[in-house]
Predict the structure.
Amino acid sequence: MEFHFIEPEQGGRQNQSHNASYLRKEFEIHGKVRSAAACFTACGIYKAYINGKEVDTQILLPGNTSYGARLQYQQYDVTDFLTEGTNVVAAVVGEGWYRGKGGFPTGSGNGKKLKFMCRMEIHMEDDTERIINADRSWKASQDGPVRENDLKAGECYDARREFEGWTSSGFDDSGWHGVLETSYDGTLIPHEGERIVEQERLKPKEILQTPDGAIVVDFGQNLCGYMEFSVTGHKGTEVRTVYGETLDENGNFTVKNLGFRTDKKTGLCDQTDRYILKEGRQTYKPSFSIRGFQYVKLENWPEPVEKDNFTSIAVYSDLKKTGTLQCSNEKINRLISNISWSMKSNFVDIPTDCPTRERAGWTGDIMVFCESATYQMDTYRFLKKWIKDVMLEQGEDGRIPNIVPDTGLPGFMSGAAGWSDAIVKVPWILYQFYGRKEILEAAYPAIVKHIRFMNRRRKKRKIWNIGKGKHWNYIIDTGFHWGEWLEPGTSLPSNALKAFLNPDCEVATAYFAWSTGKAAEIAEILGKREDAEHFRQLYGKVKEAYRIEFLPDGQVHADRQCRYVRPVALDLIDKTMKQQVVAELNRLVIRNHYRIGTGFLSTPHICRVLTEYGYTDTAYRLLENEQSPGWLYEVEKGATTIWENWNGKDDRGVPTNSLNHYSPGAVIGWMYGSIAGIRPAEPGFRKVRIAPVPGGSLTWVKCTYESTSGKITSNWEVKDGQFYLDVTVPVPAQIYLPDGTEENVEAGNWKFSCSLK
Ligand code: BGC
């Protein structure tokens, strides 16, 4: 099939204000249509119409891929859209991820010219065929209502300029200009992601007049999306809506925590929309911009502000919900909800760090969160699509970038430990949860390249580490590494500085070992015996080097919790040593008054490590601790999503950094896998393992997980020192009770009890 593209802006970017481009073509149909199919895509984002009707309710099409390499197109049966006589196919095209500001550090796409593709095949009853391509016969205009558009910066919409009836026949487009024919250099692929759609609609919790006099709508929930509003006023009045996640310590609206600055010339900051009214009552929501927000500051509102006129609309990929989890502690339930909202906010076609500041496909964030995500929603299709982009952007030398799709981060930063290991971790988790070898097969070449890259890296040495002993041959001390990242009490700039000046070789060596070990297992699963043996040997050597260097006498000599969690969680030491290391971790956590001390990389593991080695009480106290830093401290402070930084708000309520990063919410993997105790005993849950761990203040837990093998339920209750478990499994299962009893059961509903004394 041939796809033709047009450039609506006549010779590239015509104006700096990024007006959206409106495109239309009229064509005649004589006779009866038997069937018709249409394909659309754009370099940019588009919305397509046929004869006045939107073709799809999906938004932000064509979705976010590595545009340099591949671009999705969408395909529709449009038979019912067409009619005998004059027909119109139309589209509006904006910047999107292709040419916008979202992303880090430079903005998302490096795209220059917006492009649009249309191919419509019409099969007539008389067996003739018509093809409508994007070609020179289309007309374009940049004079429509969308005067400025940027996914992150916001939109300027002038309702006075709306083109009445432009997507239908009879519209006079004689003032519109022609278009250029162009092409797209990458590969066009049919849509392979999930649908991005509008989801929850929330009404305001409160309309606030803040101490500085501003009018602020509080929706009570931080999320990613936009606000729809209705307003009545006079033609030409400009209202502004500024979106933020929080109020500051004085109760005033702020975007400072997101690092947004107000442009001196325009008086605007990112996540601001301007709307210029037409006469009378009107309703508006942006189409080319999404943002992270709970609060919206209204400026120059021409009428009294009524709750009824405002709705916040969440936007994310339409993944099926697979997990539910509830317990007797309401604060933990709020935490579970916060984690789910942070996931939804960062699952807009690709997994991102936050929906505000960077909005980027940081590999490390999903590396730590993919298991947690997969308990909550069916991530297979979504993550498989993203992993393909990771593979496409892997360097020739095997380096995995920090951000995929690429947003301009310098190449030397690629291959960062923990971040780049997403190429192993994500397919591995998908295989465990869905049991499909195809994901391992697809990722395998990239995994091998990644290990080879690290294997070459370990052979280079910093001058001051030369001659330190043979085991140093297997230590990685070069490259750029983010390290544990954002342990409590540390700041984002200081962590970044450390990553530049003194990257952590303990983290780098640990992940080198872990990924190599997993590569051996994956090779074995795929029947690649020789590779498996090679990786196993390398894994053994790296593990040994790690142990000699970082646990010289079998002990960790450090006061950071992550140093104890890592060798255990990543399986770098033997069982006896693990027992001793976790005992020490337990002491360290108690000395820290049961407060969390880990950063991004070890937070998903700390509670699991503690429960697996018998320190259930400590794990629960860590989870239920309400002092700073801690998960429930955030809940206590009114958080509705997960903070990027444990120090997200101090006692005075000064907000720092993003308040919507899912990574520290990766504790939910432990809640499903240990508190409720549901895990795959075999890949794809062909066999289930249920090993609940009661503890803390919890008197009951209710958990379901919709696995590929069917629905699993694990409900438990603690009463008068007795533990009661009610499980439903669709396949055979191994049940482990807290008193050590083990049972093997067939599919069905089973009840157990035991004493907790
Ligand atoms: C992002 C993170 C990311 C990190 C790299 C931050 O600015 O928001 O989530 O993983 O940089 O360490």
Observations:
- The pocket of beta-D-glucopyranose is lined by residues 353-354, 358, 362, 364-365, 482, 485, 661 (CB under 6 Å).
